[in-house]
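Sample 1 of the test manifest.
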Amino acid sequence: MLTVLLWLYKLSFQAYPQAFRAEFADEMEGVFREQLAEQSGNGHRALLVIGFHELSQLPVAAFRLRWRVWRKNRPGSLLIRAIYRSPFHPVPPAHDGRFSWWQTLFETAPFILVSALLFTVVYLQPTWIPAEWQHQWLDFSGWVVLFALPVLMVGLLRGLPRWAYPPGGLVVGHILFTSQGLFYFWAATLLGGFALALAAIYVHLYHEPLAPFLQRIGRSLAFDWTRLSFGFYSVLPYAVISAFDDTVPNNRTAYFALALLAMILGAVAYSRSQRQAHQFGVLLGGMTLVLVFPLMEQVYLQNRWLSDLIGLSTLWAALVALLLLPMLASVIYRNWLETRSTRVEK
Amino acid sequence: MHQLPDDFSTLLPLREPTFLILLSLAEGEKHGYAILKDVTELSQERVILSTGTLYEALVRLLDQALIERIDTQEVQHPGKARKAYRLTLKGQRVIEAETVRLQNLLAVARRRLGSEGG
């Protein structure tokens, strides 16, 4: 009986944190042995009572110890380590003129132009705009791509400077949002393809001589991961259309315009921000605001806003994932670089 | 009304097992088993600690620098001195502060119950 109880007692140590076990296990076992020795004359029942008592208090004690270890280690060291390892760090001014207002205007032009177009379609409804655009909003995205694609191509040839990312986002958004039923299929395919392409560029950038313009694209991607997030932020015009889709065009409230304004302000704030954490923050904030306004409109119109809340939350989560993806790719890349340099040192 | 000896607002009030452990060590240094038995006795068998609960509390008190761990002359395992625990000055002051807090509480309760009763 004693042997079994002791064996079980030692087994229960696994519930405690490793450092605690290393420091106190022997001592605790000694105390437990003394308890058993004292009760050994009182029969098996007395021994079992000690064993059950120990077992009953084990979960709480183990949880408290593990919680304390977690609190001691995680919030401080792990967070700081994550910040240092993650791409959230001050970046030098971009070689493509980050701090120029002209640059800002150029970078945010796609948002301003698309917003102006949407504003015209929705509120002004001129005759020169095809009537079907007012009812089948996504039809006009084909025209947007027609203008965005050449800009993207020029941008790619010039080594993908930051202004080339929003047109890229508009093309991606067109593919994602015009295949409504297949949204998630397209999202998965695109993201998977993107991750593979990114990995290929990152890896080959330092191993094999690529064409100079591909090298420049690789450098642009590696220089600042928020550029890709900025590119993905550019799918927002389609998200706005999709989010406001349920409302009758002729009964449009000011919330639509506010959503467009929030989108533009997010892009401008991104362009003017100098730290990556701020840049990511304004993109996330702008995107969230953009999706809050359709909900507000539904509440204002006293429509079924609860179901819209679920739909918009899903859309929001998918877009957050898109924004986060470049950061994830960057973290993986940095870790890979670190591992590689460690191996080389060894 | 008694004054608290020091500001230990972040540490007080103590949980009953913690208070009993500190009270047990107020008598002098003790090893784990002696604390376990003393706590049972002090609480008149209301608080019976398992070794896990005892050592979880001891680790917390060590972290808070209310107690310290010392080697004794006894040998528990070959080559390893048996460990004992004793109050630090801070621990001493915390238990005094907790005692004063409890006394104040008791005085208030007595006054209220006494006045209501009489």
